[in-house]
Amino acid sequence: MNYEKLETELGYVFNNKELLSQALTHTSYAYENKVQSNEKLEFLGDAILEVTISKFLYKNYTNLTEGEMTKVRAAVVCEQSLYEVAKKHNFSDFLNLGKSEIANHGKERPAILADSVEAVIAAIYIDSNMENAEKFIISNLKDSVKIASKHVGMKDYKTVLQEKLQVHGAINIEYITIDESGPDHDKTFTVELKVNGETKTFGKGRSKKEAEMQAAKKALEM
């Protein structure tokens, strides 16, 4: 397989192409073709990811407490964040999957795509050095860190609103995304808050979570 397009996306050219191929090889393919899967690379990549994000938070977010940094790291080093990185760089076009996984739409499965990102991080590290691995991680996740750091100290307005409204019994609270605008790397979400089917407020944010929080905050202020 020609990885030139993917390497351009990654911002890194591999010396050992077989290492990149292994990083994109799921266990289902490895079993069928008697080759090595990306599981061990994924294990190493997870550790590199944790320490890189920890170091980035320590150096750049000095206002956060240890507990807050832990929460931010957990919000960033997660399946959803890594899945979005894989989608951004079209990892699904390069994955090596077994016949069963292909039949079950494995190329779109968040867990498989997220694991492949961790494996690629380890592959970059082994192929070159920690600096290049960190460069890839930070360039792809710094925006997620920024968003998570804004939320970490935020009072959970959704929980407070739910508690207040349900004092007198069960109530139906809905958060409906009604608009997404802007490019993929800089989206703005608009969310409508409904209580028992009646529209109460709207909220906007750089993520759905932030937009929902803003809608709940407005409802509490009302």
Summarize the structure.
This protein is mainly alpha-helical and 222 residues long.
Can you walk through the features of this model?
The protein has helices at 4-10, 17-23, 27-33, 39-60, 66-76, 79-88, 99-103, 110-127, 130-152, 157-165, 208-221, and strands at residues 173-181, 188-195, 198-205. The protein is mainly alpha-helical and 222 residues long. The mean pLDDT is 92.
Instruction: Give me the CATH architecture of the largest domain, please.
Output: Orthogonal Bundle
Kindly, what is the distance between the CA atoms of the first and last residues, rounded to a whole number of angstroms? Answer: 58 Å
Radius of gyration: 21 Å
In CATH terms, the superfamily of the largest domain is Ribonuclease III domain
Q: Helices and strands, in N-to-C order?
A: HHHHHHHHHHEEEH
Task: Please state how the strands of the largest beta sheet are arranged side by side.
Answer: 1-2-3
Domain module count: 2
What CATH calls the topology of the largest domain is Ribonuclease iii, N-terminal Endonuclease Domain, Chain A
State the helical fraction.
55-70%
Structural class label: mainly alpha
Question: What can be said about the biggest beta sheet?
Answer: 3 strands, antiparallel
Instruction: Provide the β-strand percentage band.
Output: 5-15%
Arithmetic mean pLDDT: 92
So how many helices? 11
